Amino acid sequence: MDILALRPVPAAAVLMAITRRCPLRCRHCSTDSLPTGPEHPGEVFLRFAGTFTPHDRPDLVMLTGGEPLLRPRLVRALAETAARNGSRTMILSGMFFAPRIPPAIEEAIEAADHFSASLDAFHEEEVPRENVFAVMRTLLARGKDLSFHITGTGPDDPYLRDVTAAVRREFGDRVPMLVSRVQPVGRALAMTPATPTAAPPGAETRALPCAMAAWPVVGFDGTITACCNQDVIDHRPIPAHLRLGHAGHDGWDVIRERCLGSGALRAIRTYGPLRLAGATGRGAGKGYCETCRELDAPSLPPSPVSVFLERQVRDMQLAGGGTGFARRYGCPPYSELVSLGHPRRNDGL
Ligand code: SF4
């Protein structure tokens, strides 16, 4: 709940996809990761984390992949480097190692502040649920801060009812869950083909802010983008307004400044891409992110009004907290489950 509450805050966190490799072959994998996927030298990521300072650093570093725990020593080094300057670290894993926790992975998890396990019908074809639970039981008994990332096909998916009830039973409502829907990206495209729909009439006048344009994302090759949309990360060239730099030569101070200072990103965070497309005379394209990627937005300098409006929109989203974010971007009937185990949890669950 605390992590999601930070989601609309620009530069509050950075995501690092430290490898595209994964030993699992989940059918819904959004990053299309494979055991033989590309992997770049760890120095690129360490160099970038080494530019954090106690006065200028993200609050949170989220390590993802592929499977980040294929590089446990790099995970540990990144977590320790981040911690030296006051950043906290979380790991998102597909749990390929379950039910055992090999020593190097144990040390990596120990170095991080939060550990999250992916769990869904597709992962369960690769790693049995009981094995995942066994690892989480061990970590919980050691006092680790934990969560589950769960995906399903939608609010009516019976799997979601079953697995969320099982997690609640197994862990006595002490472990939160972020439940979301499978998106038509990566290998999931083969199951749920993307059907780009035309933006509805008048979409250009509607404000629909994008909270995803807040946390910079370091991709597998060190390229840093303004959001985690997989098409933005994968396709070249990256639209100029969504490219922030490269971990091999830019520091956190530069990336944070570009994230905060870009007029296009501020407008996307304040009004969203549809309205921005209308304002630039292009009109909305096939859909929300598609329109954003096709924007040719001028980089306007900040004005007092644009900065004020961005703060207003951010504060409205902050008022919704972590559950508000989960309701908007996750699977709404399950959004309150992000509060499980939190001191301010929703006791009506
Ligand atoms: S609207 Fe733009 S910034 Fe937001 S997620 Fe989509 S592509 Fe990224």
Terminal residue distance: 15 Å
Helix-strand makeup class: alpha/beta
| Gyration radius, rounded | 20 Å
Going by CATH, what is the homologous superfamily of the domain at 2-195 and 211-236 and 321-339?
Aldolase class I
Q: Kindly report the spatial arrangement of strands forming the biggest sheet.
A: 6-5-4-3-2-1-7-8-9
- Distinct compounds present: iron/sulfur cluster
In CATH, the architecture of the domain at 2-195 and 211-236 and 321-339 is: Alpha-Beta Barrel
Along the chain, the helix and strand elements come as HEHEHEHEHHEHEEEHEHHHHH
Low-pLDDT stretches are none
Helix run count: 13
Give the rounded overall mean pLDDT: 92
What is the overall shape?
globular
Q: Let me know the largest β-sheet.
A: 9 strands, mixed
The total count of strands amounts to 9
| Beta-strand fraction estimate | 5-15%
CATH class of the domain at 2-195 and 211-236 and 321-339: Alpha Beta
Task: Summarize, please.
With 349 residues, this protein is an alpha/beta fold. The protein has a domain at 2-195 and 211-236 and 321-339: Alpha-Beta Barrel (TIM Barrel), CATH 3.20.20.
Question: What brief labels describe this structure?
Answer:
alpha/beta; TIM Barrel; 9-stranded mixed sheet; 13 helices; globular; binds iron/sulfur cluster
Describe this structure in words.
With 349 residues, this protein is of the alpha/beta class. The protein has a domain at 2-195 and 211-236 and 321-339: TIM Barrel (Alpha-Beta Barrel). The protein contains 13 helices and 9 strands. The protein has helices at 2-5, 42-49, 72-84, 103-111, 121-124, 129-141, 158-171, 230-234, 252-261, 263-270, 273-279, 288-293, 304-329; strands spanning 13-17, 60-64, 88-93, 114-120, 145-152, 177-181, 217-218, 223-225, 243-246. Strands 6-5-4-3-2-1-7-8-9 form a 9-stranded mixed sheet. Helix 4 links the parallel strand 3 (88-93) and strand 4 (114-120). The two termini are 15 Å apart. The site of iron/sulfur cluster has 13 residues, from helix 12.
